[in-house]
Amino acid sequence: MKLNYRIVIFALAIVFGVVFSIPSLLQTQSGKKITLGLDLQGGLHMLLGVKTDEAIKSRIKSIAASVKHYADRNDILIDGLTFDANSVSFEVLDSDEIKSFDDFLSKIEGAKIDTKGAVITISFTPKEVEKIKKLAISQAIETIRNRLDQFGLSEPHVAKQGKNQIVVELAGIKTPQEEQRARKLISRAAKLELMAVDEARNARVYNMTPADAAEYGDVILPDAKNPKIKYLVHEIPILNGSMLTGANVGFNKNNKPVIDFKLNAEGADIFGDFTGKNVGKRLAIVLDGKVVSDPNINERIGGGSGQISGNYTVLGAKDLAIALRSGALLAPVYMMGQRSVGPSLGAESIRESMIALAGGFILVIIFMLVYYRMAGLIANIALIANLFLLLAIMSLFGATLTLPGMAGIVLTVGMAVDSNVIISERIRELIYEGKSMHKAIEDGYSNAMSAILDANITTLIAAVVLYVYGTGAIKGFAITMSIGILASMLTAILGTHGIYDMLENRIKKSKDYKFWFGIKG
Amino acid sequence: MEFFRYKSAIDFMGKSKIAIAISITLMLLSYAILLTKGFNYGIDFAGGTIVQVKYDKATPIKEMREKLKTNKMFNDASITRFGSADEVIIRMKSSSKNVAEGIGDITRKALQGTGNFKIRRVDIVGPTVGNELREKGLMSMFLAIAGILIYVAFRFEWRFAVASVVALIHDVSIASGLVALFGIDVNLDVLAALLTLLGYSLNDTIIVFDRIREGIVGSKNRTLREIINDSITRTLSRTTLTSLTTFFVIFTLFLFGGEIIHPFAFTMLVGIVVGTYSSIFVASPILLWFGFDVKRYHSKLAEKAKREAEKDKMRAQFESGVM
After folding, report:
1. Could you report the per-residue pLDDT of A122-145, keeping only the tens digit for each?
2. Contact, A84 vs A107, CB < 8 A?
């Protein structure tokens, strides 16, 4: 037995591999572990797009609302207040008062103001448009994350992908009901608007077309419970959910769940003003474009609190409160792709790929032993070390193991021994040429090195390209294969060489080519 | 144990014409299949929806079809068996954009009354994502080939690089042709297999080329043809055995790895076989046809050595003059 630097490094690598793969293998409480991908543990993966144009529309709408409020408050008469997807315009009736709008207009961020005579048009600069779109995406991520955090699933993952896509990953969804709730929570715009019912014309609502309503600055909205019931409300809302500071589930007199909400100071102010001026009329509480209730205004409501009563279940009210608290989605999201795997399929995938891994592993081990004898045994030791090292590195990085990743590990088993096949064949060749076994081993390693290196590097090139261009689970394949190849350079080349070095004295004394390399010599 | 024992060089290059004829035929057949039948693109690239359903008995496909007809969403749905008799996949070309709409739930309701079943997997890929992935897929193929070409050119010589890339294209073409012929679902995992093949099938070629290079450097009096024949014969056990061990593991993956991994395993399996063949019968003959002149290489090498020697001599004179 002879100690040498190669065997020392190899031994250290084995210790490292075993120690750091233990948390993953035994699923210990502490320590860094490999996480299973959603395709193995079951779960829901969604790729969402964001309708950013809607965010601009909603900003425009809220500017329209504040124009109206400003004009009302300062007794400025305006006319023809309209808005489309990109701009708000209105006419100031008394042209002397255009100036008094300046102060208000200058406070709107990123606005481009066109004044033609007494007609003022407000739109956004291209830079502001970009900014709003960007904000809509980051706000959507933030909002969805908030909602899912409160939903009670373990470790929901919400992240931006590319420029304007959102990835949502939910592990551990067990029942279809749970999935449905999560979907609703994610997609719900949760846009709360308090709107004024146009009492003067509401009676005629069933005979009106949307175009008719628009002429009066109104819109027709359906009832949330019964879509056949319609309401005619002023298009520009009194205020919206952005002024909400809290939303909680409460219970009304009949012990039915309701949502109590609270407005911020500005909202409370506007709400107080409005209710004071409109006693006897109705207020429409609109959620995502549907009227959930239409209470009568009996008196001025100060303090800024209100209640939403719709026919909610406790769970439904809870989810809605979560959505309102986390804020509305500035822009709605839509599905671009989904992967969902049931827990039973995930478990089956794990079982099947483990069988394949074990089967391939045993085949390779037996083949190497039968074909190369001692050299095969040494290669097998390196192969086992390689697997531990692969698991350890993945654990340390907290890498995710996917089904293609498992395929990558299986492939690693087959490819890692390639180096040993190349080396052993070279050694056999040199022995046939009449070299001593010891000399043949030394020359075999140095001769085989460049071919092994080149072979591994070209495979790595392909793996790296796959990592950069692949998505999701396929990245897992690229990762396991790359780590496996890199680890094999340490174990299959350096490690086995170290073992031969350690056995140098015995090899020098021995003439048993059959025992060492499986040939007659 | 030993499969191949070197006795004398086998005349591989003598058979290269037949081999190349076979290869060209196979490649042309592959392209014909790819052009006429084409890939059976899965949802990763084509977009669409798949729902995997497992019953506790043999799947009542007929009843399922009847039930699905009642919902417009399943208009273009096709049902195919997935692995065992109790499992199927429902495929649709459409993909819902509505986040709140759980296709799994809708399918569950639609199939009610057909027996005990579980929805095990729902995959949806929107059209934009599919297109993006297809572009990325082609791009990655191109990049991997380019990267490998550059690397081999850098490590060997341009003739070696071109020969190995021709062999790579040969392997990927035939593997793709077989994937199309057997109607394998082409998803991202098949692309991953093809990319891995690019890297892996080159390994055998490199083993042979490395030996050829050694032969060229080491022997002045042999022709390139002799060197190639000798190198292939001497490395024959290496090229086949390395592929064999990988073949073992992929074969077990193919047999036991489950239905989802099947397309990947199939692609790798055919690719490994074709790749081993091509490193012997495609890459080396091309190298021979490029006509690498061993004698000229050595005379160049000698000239270079002579120049170096003269330079050294002059430098020595110069330095001693200064001293």
Report:
1. 888 889 899 888 888 988 898 888
2. no
